[in-house]
Amino acid sequence: MTSTGIGAEAGAQAARTRALAVLRIRGRALAVALLPAAATVILLAGGSTGHFVGRGWDTARWTVGALAVVVLLAAAGVALVVARARPAVSPTVPIKEESAPDLYRMVRDLADRLDVPAPSAIALTPDCDSWLEDRTHPAHGPPAPKGGDELGTPGLHRRAPAAPVLVIGSPFLWWMRVGELRAVLAPVVAGTGPSAHPDIAAARRFVRGLDAAVAVSAAPARRPATRLVCAGIAWVARLLLRGCREHATLMERGVAAAAAERAQAVDYGLRIVAQEQVGLAYAGWDRLLTRVALPAWRMGRWPSRLDAGVVAALTELSRRDRLAEGFASRLGERPACDLLEEPGLVDEAASLLAARLFHGGPAEPGPAWSPVAWQEYPDEVVDRTWRTEAARLHRVLDALGVRATLDPGAPDPGGPTLARVLDHLTDPTTAASDRPPCLPAHDDPRTSAGDPRTSAGDPRASAGDPRASEGDPRTSDGDPRASGQDHRTPGHDVRVPGHDVRIPGHDVRIPGYDDEADGEPTGTERSAALAAGLTAALAREEHEGAHASTAGTTRPGCPAAAGGQGGPGSPLWDDGALPLFPLQPPRTARELLADHVKAMVCCAAVDTAGATPGLDWLDGPALLVDGERAADLTPRILSLIEEGDPAPLRAWLVKSGIRPEKPVRLV
Questions:
Q1: In the chain, N or C terminus with fewer CB closer than 10 Å?
Q2: pLDDT of residue 388
Q3: Helix, strand, or coil here: 133?
Q4: What is the rounded CA–CA span in Å between residue 296 and residue 276?
Q5: How many CB atoms neighbour CB 539 within 10 A?
Q6: Closest CA to 349 of 391, 302, 315, 384
Q7: Rounded to whole angstroms, how far apart are CA atoms 318 and 162?
Q8: Nearest to residue 237, comparing CAs of 216, 208, 214, 206?
Q9: The sheet that has 93-95: what strands, in order across it?
Q10: Which 8-state DSSP code applies to residue 369?
Q11: DSSP string across 38-70
Q12: Model pLDDT, residue 87
């Protein structure tokens, strides 16, 4: 075994061959840049010896010389940008050796068994992955002090000061046992051997420099001359990257193959079992972020123990899927988080970084961005979310001019009620028993004799059919859909074709309510107008939050507040484009309406039937009625907003003892 860690593995030899191919491309680019200068030297030498004389040769010398100067200056500029551009660095939580001596000791022992250089430092990432990352570029930090590594972490690696940093997925530390983590990290740590080879290291620096040069050149420039220079540098860098792409890819594959081959002798049998835990950790982490953490982030709160929540989520998943046969004995072993001196503080730092990466939260906690413990989650996140969305729903109803009761002679109740939402979204043609007094049956244009869509079960039997409005060019005397009646709720101004809904102060096109998408409307006219109003209200709140963040204040859960610099790790990576990995696309108008109606139902259940907010580790916020989770609520709400049929939801309300006519408390 050589001192650089490269042995006779076939993968290592293939990686070195591809690295040399990358370096040859670099050499060819340098040769092309020097070619005009070499021609100039030849012409000057020929003139001085009396071989190339005459006006033509003099002109050639001046022309080629000028070209050589331009090419050399351009090449020097490109080389300077490639050398000085800061390569991208993954956002991580650094772990110093004094805060995790057992973890460093395990990694050092693993490197000794593999006969490779140990990583220079250890860092955690809020993701289910592990890798080696080169942070030796001067732009990544000050020079390492004597006796330490380039990140200022003392003592882990003393044989090769340029060794990469080991990045470990934080969910692995909390879910895996110590032996499982060691087995998973073995092939990763083995990659420090090929990384130390000078040819592979040089090829990687060249490719990373080209990639960083492209990123630098893509930055917006104010002056036209600067934009022209940046465009030229980007063109050269992309040209070289295209030439290196295949060789660089095969080089990395060779490095991975060499690392896997080297690690086969270390905990091979345990690694097979550990890989199963990697898949479980990823599944639990994904569910925890999208179902549990995201609602809290939107409220301006961030769960401070996400990694601990992975254990609870996966334990619940194993219980539901009947996979707990071997879990009792496995969970009795030492967890990998015990390798940390203060796992709670590390979990909190990783949880805050996860909120920044996946949602765009601020870098530091504050009054509008505070941590929340799991025991406080139902009251601080679930209940607040419901009441905030219910309040927004009633504000939009007020803006649309919807009365609290559809009976003109009945007095309005003293507060917001669920009955107001149900009455507004109910389609008068769905059920005669639920028809409001102010909308008699004979006013519905589709209840006249001869309309073929008045039969039960036809999903198009809705007062909000956009093809039934007056002035629609598709209506004719022979079309049973033609009618002069217009059943817009007072306060609505709805241009139904194409669903451009106009609300006072807003002009919104409803996403998710396109009647031309599949030939059938996806909701009633009333639900479309209400969904558009919610979309506009939420957009206005986010816009106000963005202005508040620029003025020094932050609205709860506003992603626009994430653009601030500073915080841990800010010199190493650019956080101006957060969130880097958004969990979900923006909610459609249909999803927003369903969430807000569900929030109103949950508020009514809590205030009138003694229900309680809860936390489901796999599904997030939950409504507990008599201690049981209400799992069949969503399809009943969709029936109301899509078909205008309140019967399934009303039956559930009666069964659960919920009083929709009683006012609820809002924020």
A1: N
A2: 94
A3: strand
A4: 30
A5: 13
A6: 302
A7: 43
A8: 214
A9: 93-95, 121-125, 165-169, 131-133
A10: B
A11: HHHHHHHHHHHTTSS-SHHHHHHHHHHHHHHHH
A12: 84
| Contact between 299 and 385 (Cβ < 8 Å) | yes
Whether 405 and 423 have beta carbons less than 8 Å apart is answered as yes
Q: What is the pLDDT of residue 144?
A: 46
Smallest CA-to-CA distance from 426 within 659, 662, 651, 640 is with 640
Phi/psi for 129 (5° steps) reads -160, 160
Q: Which residues contact 303 (CB under 8 A, 6 or more apart)?
A: 292, 293, 296, 309, 351, 371, 372, 373, 374, 377
Task: List, for the chain, all residue ranges whose pLDDT scores fall below the cut of 50.
Answer: 1-8, 142-161, 431-495, 497-521, 550-573
Query: Of 341, 337, 356, which Cα lies nearest the Cα of 175?
Result: 337
What pLDDT shows up at residue 224?
Answer: 78
The whole-number pLDDT of residue 587 equals: 85
User: What DSSP string describes 200-247?
Assistant: HHHHHHHHHHHHHHHHHHTS--SSHHHHHHHHHHHHHHHHHHHHHHHH
Is-contact 303 371, C-beta < 8 A?
yes
Instruction: Read off the DSSP letter of residue 615.
Output: E
Measured from the Cβ of residue 334, the count of other Cβ atoms closer than 10 Å reads 10
C-alpha 233/C-alpha 398 separation (Å) is 57
How far apart, in whole angstroms, are the C-alpha atoms of residue 617 and residue 309?
8
Quick: pLDDT tens for 390-417.
999 999 999 998 877 655 555 556 679 9
Percent of the chain whose predicted confidence (pLDDT) is above 70: 72
Q: In angstroms, rounded to a whole number, what is the distance separating the alpha carbons of residues 399 and 524?
A: 19
Q: Which residues lie below 8 Å from residue 70, measured CB to CB, with a gap of 6+? A: none
Q: What is the pLDDT of residues 632-662, one digit of tens each?
A: 899 999 999 999 999 999 999 999 999 999 9
